[in-house]
TrEMBL record:
Keywords: Copper, Electron transport, Metal-binding, Transport
Protein name: Azurin
Gene3D superfamilies hit by this protein: Cupredoxins - blue copper proteins
Pfam families registered for this protein in UniProt: Copper-bind
Record's keyword annotation contains Transport: yes
Transmembrane spans: none
PROSITE patterns: PROKAR_LIPOPROTEIN (PS51257)
Topology in the lipid bilayer: Lipid-anchor
SUPFAM superfamilies, per database record: Cupredoxins
Length: 196
């Protein structure tokens, strides 16, 4: 019996020793594997930072071409009467600026339509009231309204519309964007900022 217990004890010690030997061997390669992976992840990040710095430096000397790439933006609207942004920044360097409005919801335009209208902040209330009177066939925008800088058509879920305008129209005053669908303007509005 003593021999049997001695053999079991020796086997248990041997297994424990094997288990201890295997664990460091497993963790060591994993740690070594992690180190090269971390190094390879760090290298592209450093490379991309360096390559990102180069275009930024080029952009400083070639501002017109760098700014030309930022002469458009996309604004999303949804079925909860929300725009995904409260500020549209327009570069002074742009000759034209394009806003794409995307309706990410599913409701039709008759029930939950959206547009995007840009006007001076002090004119927004009148633009919204006149747009409401104009009705859905006019996209809730008064025809020939000189207060409006730009306006998309009215769209429903899954649709998109674009409008392009001259940023110089934003030179004097404070401007806002709004959805003129009746009842939406209180929630769906933001500022339009002319930036350097």
């Amino acid at each position: 019996m003593k021999t049997y217990l001695a053999l079991i004890s020796a086997a248990a010690i041997g297994l424990a020793a094997c288990g201890k030997t295997d664990k460091p061997a497993e963790t060591a390669p994993a740690a070594e594997a992690s180190a090269p992976a971390a190094a390879s992840e760090a290298a592209p990040a450093a490379g991309s930072d360096a390559s990102a710095a180069a275009p930024a430096a080029e952009g400083a000397s070639g501002a017109a071409s760098a700014d030309a790439g930022n002469c458009a933006t996309t604004v999303e609207a949804n079925d909860a009467m929300q725009f995904n942004t409260k500020d549209i920044k327009v570069s002074k360097a742009c000759k034209e600026f394009t806003v794409t409005l995307k309706h990410t919801g599913t409701q039709p335009k008759a029930g939950m339509g959206h547009n995007l209208v840009i006007a001076k902040a002090e004119d927004i209330e009148g633009v919204v009231a006149d747009g409401s009177s104009a009705g859905p066939d006019a996209d809730y925008v008064k025809a020939g309204d000189a207060r409006i800088v730009a306006a998309t058509k009215l769209i429903g879920g899954g649709e998109e519309a674009k409008v392009t305008f001259d940023p110089a129209k934003l030179a004097n005053g404070s401007f806002k964007f709004v959805c003129t669908f009746p009842g939406h303007a209180a929630l769906m509005n933001g500022t339009v900022t002319l930036a350097d």
